[in-house]
Amino acid sequence: MAKRAESSELLFEGSDWNFATLSIVHDAIQDIAIGEMELDIYPNQLEIISSEQMLDAYSSVGMPLMYQHWSFGKRFIYEDSLYRKGHRGLAYEIVINSNPCIAYLMEENTMAMQTLVIAHASFGHNHFFKNNYLFRQWTDAGAILGYMDFAKKYIAKCEERHGTEAVEAILDSAHALMDNGVFRYRRPPRLSSEKVRERARERLEYEEQTYSDLWRTLPSSADSRDPHEAERNASERKKALNLPEENLLYFIEKHSLILEPWQRELLRIVRIIAQYFYPQRQTKVMNEGCATYVHYTIINRLFDQGKISEGNMLELLSSHSNVVFQPGFDDPRFSGINPYALGFAMMQDIERICTQPTDEDRDWFPSMAGNRDPMGTLRDAWANHRDESFILQYLSPTVIRKFRLFRLSDMAADKFCEVSSIHDERGYAEIRSALARSYDVSARQPDIQVVDVDLLGDRRLRLKHTVNDGLLLEETSRNETLTHIRHLWGYEVGLSGVDGATGNVLYDHSTG
55 Cβ partners below 8 Å, 6+ apart? Predict the structure, then answer.
C-alpha cells in the first residue's frame, strides 16, 4: 500500500489530463495487453472530440467520413435534444474497425476514464476486430476509410450533377433495404472469363458427341403446349440469375432495368456499408464482453503495480459497475439482457473454469476445465465464434444461476405462460439453446428472398417471405418497404408469405 501511494509510481494524479499523460498511459496499458495478455491489435490512433462531435458521430453511424443525408440530421437533433435535457448521457468513446484502429475519446472525460476507455476500445475492441473470423471474412479494416472518403465525394458529385432530391430518393429506398442488403454466407468465387469459355467449349463438344440425326425425324410439336416447358424455362431462368437471392440490394443493383450507372453505384455504397456493420450485429455480446474483460483485467493489473491511486481506482470500478449492471426483469430500467453484463460474466466464468473448476464444470466443459490457460482459451473463443455459437458452447450453469435465467413457453393460443425449463441438468441445456437462438441475427430478421423474375416477360419481381414461428410482417411497414423496392426495380413487385414448417401460403401481396 505504501508503495502504491508514492506519486513517482503513479501514471497520473487527479482528474485532469494532457496528451503527454495519455501517451504514458497508453504505453503502460500496451505493455500489459500485448506483453502479458498477448493481444494482437492494429496500430492505435486516439482522437479527442467534443460532446457535439460525439453526437454528430452518433447520427452518422459512428464513421469519421460519411456522406450527407437528411436522416443523419434528424437523428442528430433527436440525440442532441435528449442530451441537453439530461435524459440521456453520451458514450465515453466510439471505436472504428479500421487499420489503424481509431478511438474517439470525449474531452470531458477524466484521466481515469480516459485510461478505462483506452484499455476498453484501443485494446479490447481492437483485438476483437482484428482476430474474430467474421470481421476477417467480411471487412477490410485497411480499406474502409479510403472507401468512405470515395463514397462521400461520389455522392456529393451526384448531388451536384443530378440534384439533391434525386440522390436522396435513391438513398431513402436503399436505406430502407439495408437490413436485407447483406450476404449472410460466403458466395462462390466468380468464374474467370477463361473458365467460362472453357465450360462453353466442353458443353458444345458434349452436344456434338451425343447428337443423333434421328431427333430431326420426330414430328414437330407445339412446344408451347408442353406442360413441362414453363417449369423448365423457369428453372433455367433462376439458374442464370442465381436465384433464390437473399441480398435484395445486390440483386436490384445488378438486374434492375431502370437504374442508371450512378444509381447502381449508390446502391453498392449502401450495400457495402451494411455488410461492413453486419459482423457487429452478430457479435454484440462477445465484442463488448471481450472489451470489458480486457479493460477490467488491465486496470486491476495497473493498480496491483501501484500505477493507479486508490481514489482513481474507485472511480474506474464505479464506471465499470455501471457498465455491467443488469436490472431485474421487474425493474423499470429493464430493457433486456445487458450485452456488457452477459459477455463480461461469461468471460470471467471461462477464466474460473480454466483455473478453479468444480465437478459440474468438468462435466460440462471437459476440454477446458482446469487447463490453466484462461487467456489462450479466451483468445480462441474470441477468434472463432459469434454470439449464437459462443453462448451455445460456453454458457455455464453457474452463469445461468447468477442471472436467474429460466425458459418460458408462451404460445399465442394459450391463456397463460408456462415455465418450461428450470435449474436442472436438462433445463440448463434448454435455457442455453433458447438463449443462443435469440442471438441468431438470421432468426430475428425476416427471411425474404428473390425467388423469380422474368426479365424478358412481365419483369414482375417475386419475393418470398419464409414465416417462422407464425411471425408475420407488420402490414404498414411491409407495404412501405415494398414501395421502396418497386421504386428501385421499376416494375411490379409481389411478396408471398409461406409457412416455413408446412409450406402453406399465408398471404400474397403485390404493389399492383
Answer: 76, 79, 80, 83, 90
